[in-house]
Design goal:
Layout lengths: L1 H13 L11 E8 L2 E11 L3 H13 L7 E3 L2 E7 L9 E10 L2 E11 L2 E2 L6 H91 L5 H77 L3
Antiparallel strand pairs: 1-2, 2-6, 3-4, 4-5, 5-6, 6-7
């Protein structure tokens, strides 16, 4: 039954869209800005969030300069961007970011001076550096996304580990309570043997003293006998209360044992369920870790 449960669990997990990593490809492209087509480069960034990526791209373009990105009709423009990894002098950058289902399309044109753009005609080195800029940006966005996915799965795994740890502590506590309750029962039963023996002895003494008391003449000795009998009755009441207390402790300990004995198998079953989920979650996490490591290796 456990094997079947595990099999079903893994089937369900395999259906939970763990997207495999997709390649990041930078291409020479062109983009329409206004009414004209500009030579540039484009890159597809898998899976990432549009707004977060837009914010990161804007931050990259504005870094190191007082210039601001201006957006009009989804076209982004910045004059005097500082992109020293591409070229030492400031450049104008025209770009667009489009959401295409599970992939973002980013295209950019880098204007060195009026109507002169980074393209093959201006030099292979600049094109390679611009491609590297887009590739590194796309890879960073993809890595951030998958790193966050890994953290989410790690948190799920830790939550399962905490649940199992809590159940283990509960079970340990129940087993400890059984041992403690058994000791209590043994101790109280030994105590009862002594208490019942003493009670029987006092009960007989009271009966004998009462017989003796009825045959005595009025006087000091009879008063003393009466006081003695009262003391014995007090002792008898105290013993009776002690016996009741011991019996209550035994009953309570027996109830504790019964409850713990019934709860332990249930705890075992729940632990087994969580351990199966833990094993499955470890497999899920590993897939995300593998995905992350593969993306880290992109060049």
């Amino acid at each position: 039954m456990k094997t079947i449960y595990l099999f079903i669990l893994f089937i369900l997990i395999s259906c939970v869209g763990i997207k495999g990593q997709k390649p990041i490809v930078v291409s020479e492209d062109s983009l329409m800005v206004g009414n004209g087509m500009l030579p540039g480069l484009s890159v597809s960034i898998p899976e990432v969030d549009y707004e977060k990526t837009l914010k990161s791209w804007t931050k990259l373009l504005q870094a190191g300069t007082k210039s601001q990105v201006v957006t009009e009709n989804a076209e982004m423009t910045i004059f005097g961007a500082i992109l020293k990894n591409v070229i030492e002098s400031p450049v104008n950058v025209y770009s667009i970011l489009i959401d295409r289902d599970s992939t973002l399309y980013l295209a950019a044109a880098f204007e060195l001076k009026k109507d002169q753009y980074i393209e093959r005609a201006t030099g292979e080195a600049e094109v390679a550096k611009a491609k590297s800029l887009l590739f590194d940006f796309a890879k960073e966005q993809y890595l951030d996304l998958v790193s966050e996915e890994v953290k989410i799965e790690e948190n799920k795994l830790r939550d399962l580990e905490k649940e199992i740890g809590s159940l283990e502590r509960d079970q340990s506590g129940m087993e400890k309570s059984i041992r403690s309750s058994n000791r209590t029962i043994d101790n109280e039963r030994e105590k009862l043997i002594s208490l019942n023996s003493e009670l029987s002895s006092i009960t007989l003494s009271i009966a004998d003293e009462r017989i003796s008391f009825t045959s005595m003449e009025e006087g000091t000795l009879k008063d003393e006998k009466n006081d003695f009998i009262k003391d014995l009755e007090k002792k008898k009441k105290k013993l009776t209360r002690s016996i009741e207390s011991s019996n209550k402790k035994i009953s309570k300990a027996e109830r504790t044992i019964t409850k713990a004995t019934n709860d332990i198998p249930r705890n075992d079953r729940i632990q087994g369920k969580y351990r199966d989920e833990l094993t499955a979650q470890e497999a899920v996490l590993q897939k995300y870790v593998d995905k992350l490591n593969t993306i880290k290796g992109y060049k």
